[in-house]
């Protein structure tokens, strides 16, 4: 029980520290590396919530594929000069932080209310899922109950590929 | 396992950091990364609620959100490359025209 709490605070710290690093680091390259750390921390959080399949997908898809995409684009473009220019709005950082903290206060208000967990209980307690196997349950649901969204997702990814190729193609003539 | 509130507070903090990044930073790539952080904050809330309500729906929805995020990153970064080719800059302050 104690070890679980220590693990939670460790990965939560890695996640939040990484996310903060994305926002404060001056170079986009360091932002990407911090974001990879944040995503790995999130995978740890998913593990502590016994969502093993999603944790694996988080590492493979997010920390792997998507971040490589970001890394390629940053190395393709010549960045870093823009950030040294003076801010057009000098108070932007102050107001941005205040606005973000207002968002946080609003969410915190909801979290601290008593009616946070009133939904109907599902039929998949963690013990039953670990008995059946997390990946098996996800796969079974994906191809039965969630078949239509799953196929729509395939269409979406197809359209995304075509859109990216068409947009980034060099115009000839 | 930590109580639900702790997970939700981590999720809220993550979302706040994402909002801050979108407002404060001017490099469009960092802004796109901040949007990814916000998507992940929502994912964490989904999985936490699913776990504490004995439901698998949260995990399934997170799976779909990840697919949408992948498509969004691909198209968004293609747009970033397009903007850079036309304006030699990735500063969001300079993107003030609808035509390139």
Account of the protein in words:
Chain A contains seven helices and no strands. Chain A has helices at about 1-25, 30-50, 50-75, 90-110, 125-130, 135-145, 145-170. In chain B, helix 1 packs antiparallel against helix 2 (about 30-50) and helix 2 packs antiparallel against helix 3. Chain B is mainly alpha-helical and about 100 residues long. Chain B has a single domain (about 5-85), classed as Helix Hairpins (Orthogonal Bundle), CATH 1.10.287. The interface between A and B is large, with 86 and 71 residues.
* Average pLDDT reading of chain B: 90
The quaternary structure here is: heterodimer
N-to-C SSE string of chain A, H for helix and E for strand: HHHHHHH
Q: What is the fold-level CATH name, i.e. the topology of chain B?
A: Helix Hairpins
CATH topology of the largest domain in chain A: Four Helix Bundle (Hemerythrin (Met), subunit A)
Low-confidence stretches of chain A: none
CATH architecture of chain B: Orthogonal Bundle
Keywords:
heterodimer, A: 173 residues, mainly alpha, Four Helix Bundle (Hemerythrin (Met), subunit A), 3 domains, B: 100 residues, Helix Hairpins, 3 helices, 77% helix
Briefly say what this structure is.
Chain A has 7 helices and no strands. With 173 residues, chain A is mostly helical.
Secondary structure elements and pairings:
The complex is a heterodimer of chains A (173) and B (100).
Chain A lengths: L1 H23 L3 H21 L3 H25 L15 H21 L13 H7 L1 H10 L3 H22 L5
Helix pairs in contact in A: 1-2, 2-3
Chain B lengths: L3 H21 L3 H25 L4 H31 L13
């Amino acid at each position: 029980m104690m070890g679980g709490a220590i693990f939670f605070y460790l990965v939560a710290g890695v996640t939040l520290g990484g996310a903060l690093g994305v926002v404060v680091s001056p170079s986009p390259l360091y932002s990407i590396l911090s974001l990879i750390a944040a995503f790995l921390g999130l995978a740890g959080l998913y593990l502590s919530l016994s969502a093993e399949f999603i944790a694996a997908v988080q590492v493979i898809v997010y920390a792997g594929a998507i971040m490589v995409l970001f890394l390629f684009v940053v190395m393709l473009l010549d960045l870093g000069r823009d950030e040294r220019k003076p801010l057009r709005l000098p108070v932007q950082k102050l107001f941005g932080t205040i606005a973000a903290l207002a968002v946080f206060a609003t969410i915190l208000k909801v979290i601290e209310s008593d009616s946070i967990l009133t939904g109907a209980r599902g039929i998949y307690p963690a013990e039953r899922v670990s008995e059946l196997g997390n990946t098996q349950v996800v796969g079974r649901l994906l191809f039965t109950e969630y078949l239509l969204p799953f196929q729509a997702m395939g269409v979406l990814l197809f359209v995304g590929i075509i859109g990216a190729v068409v947009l980034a193609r060099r115009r000839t003539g | 396992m930590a109580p639900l509130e702790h997970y939700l507070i981590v999720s809220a903090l993550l979302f706040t950091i994402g909002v801050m990044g979108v407002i404060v930073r001017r490099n469009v790539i960092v802004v796109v990364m901040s949007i990814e952080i916000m998507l992940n904050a929502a994912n964490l809330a989904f999985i936490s609620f699913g776990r504490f309500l004995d439901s698998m729906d949260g995990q399934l929805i997170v799976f779909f959100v990840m697919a949408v995020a992948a498509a969004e990153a691909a198209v968004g970064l293609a747009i970033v490359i397009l903007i850079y080719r036309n304006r030699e800059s990735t500063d969001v302050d300079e993107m003030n025209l609808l035509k390139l």
